[in-house]
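Hey,

The postdoc asked me to send both predictions to you directly instead of through the lab channel. I've kept everything plain text so nothing gets mangled by the mail client. Protein one:
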Amino acid sequence: MEKVLFDIYLAEAEINANSNIFSSDSARKQEFLNSVLKKHKITEAVLDTSLFWYSGHLDKYYKINTNVKMRFTQMADNLRRQEVATTKKSIIAEGSGFVLPVDNERFLLRITDLPNNVHTFKADTFLNRYGGKYELQFNILGVSASLNPVVTLCVQCIDTVFVKRDTISRNGLFTFSVDIPQQKQAKTLYGSIHFPDIRSGMGIFIQDFTLFHSYSFQQPLSISQPTK
């Protein structure tokens, strides 16, 4: 039953994602759902009978749905990890930039971990690069309607600091970037995640925390200073 429900929910998600196609073609929608039943070698009548039986055994039905939810969470997590890994490989393979080292790529933030409601981060390297785009990317879980973290990303150059802010309004993949003019030489990259309103028991999980630097132009050559 768990396998059947998983595939049915997956099919329904596909239908909802393509509502412009299925809403005007009920026959196609039914055929799509029937393909799930055919895969598990059952009929709609058998499914209805099973669901009726589980209506009288809600403890078993609850356990099945909990397992289905865990499978969806794991699948979504794997897809996001593949997306992040693909982005990293693409940047490195194309020679269009590089991944900046960070202290932690995966961590849990609780109220005790947030002095002044703020989590800070920085690239664990000295940049010494001209221009380009500095990007922050991570997956986040724990965001709610009453908890909208504010992300600040700063690029410290020799004579100025470029700052950009954005609000995280949903769970999932979050990306954010700051563009630096070609004539500007970046030195350090740092930032923060601020939680305006946090409560006891709050837990924010962040994974695949990554900082990138990408560019589409040739970096200026370094000029050695004469020895004195």
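Protein two:
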Amino acid sequence: MVQTYVNPTEDPNKVTTAVRNMFPKSNLILKNTEVYFSTEEFENLKKIKDQIRSRSTLSVLKKILLNNLTVDKTWFLLNKQAAFVGVVAMVEDEDESPLGPIKITIKNLNIDEILRWFEN
């Protein structure tokens, strides 16, 4: 699941653009102050995967995914402003993104499968 909030000072169209830049094939839902979508396809994370691998920040993503791991899910955050211009910028804490982050939650019983997918 991918979700972010539209702050009162933000243009909802710009927020949906930021999310769509990261997830071009998504069917976004804008409801009240939240933009979100859900998918079961890892391929929706391809743009993120490609940019993380090209910037050699895969180890940072691995650390974040492992630190946020619970029984059947994990998550990571992206900077919303960077996403608006098509750049994947991970943040470790919600406060690092002034307008709030885009949260990507991955549900899967096998974290090794998730990590392998990002590596390959």
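Summary for protein two, as requested: DSSP finds five helices and six strands in the chain.

Thanks,
C.
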